[in-house]
Design goal:
With 667 residues, the chain is an alpha/beta fold. The protein contains 22 helices and 23 strands. Strands 7-8-6-9-10-11 form a six-stranded mixed β-sheet. Strands 14-13-12-15-16-17 form a six-stranded parallel β-sheet. Strands 18-19-20-21-23-22 form a six-stranded mixed β-sheet, sandwiched between helices. Strand 19, helix 20 and strand 20 form a beta-alpha-beta unit. Helix 1 packs antiparallel against helix 2, helix 15 crosses helix 17 and helix 16 packs across helix 18. The radius of gyration is 39 Å and the shape is elongated. The N and C termini lie far apart (79 Å).
């Protein structure tokens, strides 16, 4: 008997019992008042009970008959629905054994070798069952058609030879080909907004004679219009060096596959002094309206320019994809921005309760030198200023000791002290990094909204978004160079202490490798400004000296280097060392000085992390390679840190990324 049958009978029985109790009470009351009704009452009550039992049995039989008939009708309807399902339907076991197929299924797949598809599907389903995923809901491609497969499991009592539980699976195949095609057409027809900017327009125009300017501009615009036409798009000139590019989303993958060849084609345009013309392209398909997509493209453009220009960036599904970026950053010749930033930073400092400065994890002389420059700026305006320094290598440890001996002991604080003194009205200045995950104490970023970022590294995705003031110039040699310009253009004369000037100078020296790499006019101007403070060059050089033991280790690393892709030197420092990043950096510097090596990578073991230092003479973009591993830096100097990998795994991953770079750039 079904559960429904039992519940119905229980309901009838419950009401009958109540009535019998009421009648019994009434008869008892009657008998108490008059004893001569006792025998008639008993006879009457027995008769009622007998009648009740008879009625109950009769109703029970009728109810059971009705329910059985109803159940049979429902089962028949279910079976008919199953057999005559309008959707192709199949019942099978997880082994792939087909128990039953509907007529619609046989008709739908009459001319298709469906068994191979079913076997593959059964294997996938079995794997999902083993992973405790009992929901079937997926799309499969069968004979150039797309089917939405949904279904359910029924556990059987039988077990297979391995004593694993067997399941019977009912699968419905719903043809969604037209729906998917319409969705794809709709998505392909969506608008993408791009911004195209000529990086060095001003420099090019200034160097071209008046009679050749119209011809050059026409040549540039012809290239752009031809490129836009191949993408089915429309390009509109917004400013002298900026264009807005509108096209359909279906062409986006085409651009990605072609690696934005327009970047190289633009460099083929000849100029009078042979200076290549470079483009920066930012594209976004994020946003409900075209205006939102344009705003998103502007953010992407900031990222691309922060990485040095000469590249394309696509913002899609919350991520950035980069293309190009092969040439050196273009140094800006105007110092207007440095002056504006300097004055704006002054105003923030004047209104602040105090100033906290921090660099990046495992700080170096550049981050500390830049910190000291901002420290002196804040002290000049009579504000309490502190430098957060939690982590550093051996060389910096000696320098920090020197600073404390020079009277900066109270100014240099740790994480706990910084968290105690920071307030919403604190100006937090981040130097030598813009990455949220790479700052010395990330928790400080949540304690104040007055955040200033000063950095020279090529911009990455993990940038600090809520900074109210940003001085991010990828052309600069170092953070110390940028801070020197801020100090130089302050409205109030800033007098640096000698050790502060020396540390700024040392920061520039370190990041330029003694003014060899990534130097421009403004690099030497900043160095000249600092030299007037009577810098002791010998003292500064001593900060970079290696002890004999470290030098021997570096020599071994260079000696054991191997060459991949003909010009890439790779070596490994296997010993676990907290200062491995410093050793690797120096070894990479030495390795790049060897002839026929255009780029060098040295991997080191820091205990819980694998560090990688990359160097290049400019032909190979080490920043793009190490960015694929979560790192960053510049074309000629970059680094990365990997967690959860062995040294061999990290080396293999690095070689894979190098090969990807060579493939993508057809080297």
């Amino acid at each position: 008997m079904s559960n429904y049958n039992i519940k119905a009978l229980e309901k009838v029985e419950s009401k009958t019992k109540i009535y019998l109790v009421i009648i019994a009470i009434l008869l008892i009351v009657l008998c108490i008042n008059n004893i001569k009704f006792i025998i008639p009452s008993i006879i009457f009550y027995v008769g009622i009970i007998a009648y009740t039992i008879w009625v109950y049995n009769k109703r029970k039989g009728e109810l059971s008959s009705y329910i059985n008939e109803l159940t049979f009708s429902v089962d028949s309807a279910a079976k008919n629905t199953l057999i005559n399902s309008p959707f192709p339907l199949i019942i099978l076991e997880t082994s792939g054994n087909v128990i039953w197929r509907s007529a619609t299924f046989n008709k739908e797949f009459a001319n298709v070798g469906i068994n191979a598809y079913i076997d593959d599907l059964a294997k996938e389903i079995k794997t999902e069952i083993q992973n405790n995923n009992f929901k079937i809901d997926k799309q499969v491609n069968i004979d150039n058609k797309i089917y939405h497969v949904i279904g359910d499991y029924v556990k059987t009592k039988k077990k297979d030879r391995k004593k694993e539980i067997k399941y019977i699976i009912t699968l419905y195949f719903i043809n969604v080909t037209m729906e998917v095609e319409l969705t794809n057409k709709y998505n392909d027809a969506k608008t993408c907004i791009g911004i195209v900017m000529l990086d060095n327009y001003e420099e090019i125009i200034q160097r071209v004679s008046e009679e050749n300017k119209p011809q050059l501009i026409a040549g540039i615009e012809k290239k752009l219009y031809e490129w836009a036409n191949t993408c089915g798009g429309l390009i509109i000139k917004k400013e002298r060096d900026t264009y807005v590019f509108v096209f359909e989303q279906k062409y986006l993958s085409q651009m990605e596959n072609n690696k934005f060849t327009i970047l190289d084609e633009m460099k083929e345009i000849e100029t009078e002094e042979g200076m290549p013309i470079t483009l920066t392209i930012a594209i976004s398909d994020e946003g409900e309206s075209n205006y939102e997509k344009y705003e998103s493209a502007l953010v992407a453009m900031d990222i691309a320019l922060g990485r040095g220009g000469d590249q394309a960036v696509i913002r899609k599904e919350g991520k950035y994809n980069f293309f190009g970026g092969k040439t050196q950053e273009v140094e800006k010749r105007t110092k207007v921005k440095a002056r504006v930033i300097s004055h704006a930073l002054e105003e923030l400092i004047k209104k602040a309760d105090n100033v906290i400065i921090m660099g990046h994890i495992n700080g170096d002389i550049d981050s500390v030198g830049a910190s000291l420059g901002i420290y002196r700026l804040a002290k000049t305006f009579e504000k309490e200023a502190y430098i957060v320094n939690n982590t550093y290598g051996l060389t910096l440890e000696n320098f920090i000791t020197t600073l404390k001996q020079e009277g900066y002991g109270e100014a240099i604080i740790d994480k706990n002290k910084a968290l105690d003194i920071i307030s919403p009205n604190t100006v937090l200045v981040v130097v030598d990094t813009h990455k949220r995950s790479y700052v010395e104490v990330a928790e400080l970023l949540e304690k104040t909204e007055k955040i200033v970022v000063i950095d020279h590294h090529r911009k990455s995705e993990d940038f600090i978004e809520n900074a109210i003031l940003t001085f991010h110039e990828a052309y600069a040699s170092s953070a110390s160079e940028l801070v020197t310009e801020i100090v130089e253009y302050a409205t109030k004369e800033i007098t640096l202490e000698q050790i502060e000037a020396e540390s700024l100078y040392a920061g520039i020296m370190m990041d330029t490798k003694n003014f060899t790499f990534k130097t421009g006019v403004r690099t030497f101007e900043a160095a000249a400004y600092l030299r007037k403070y009577g810098i002791d060059i010998i003292k500064v050089k001593k900060w970079f000296q290696s002890d004999l033991e470290s030098y021997a280790v570096i020599a071994d690393i260079v000696r054991n280097a191997e060459i991949v892709n003909d010009t890439i030197g790779i070596s490994v420092y296997d010993e676990k060392d907290k200062n491995a990043n410093l050793i690797c950096a120096k070894a990479a510097d030495e390795l790049i000085t060897i002839s026929n090596i255009s780029a060098s990578f040295v991997l080191g073991h820091m205990g819980d992390k694998i560090c990688i230092s990359g160097r290049s003479i400019g032909d190979i973009n080490v920043q793009v390679i190490l960015e694929k591993l979560g790192g960053g830096g510049h074309i000629t100097l970059a680094g990365a840190q990997l967690e959860g990998l062995t040294m061999e795994e990290a080396k293999t991953e690095l070689i894979i990324r190098i090969n990807e770079y060579f493939t993508e750039n057809n080297i």
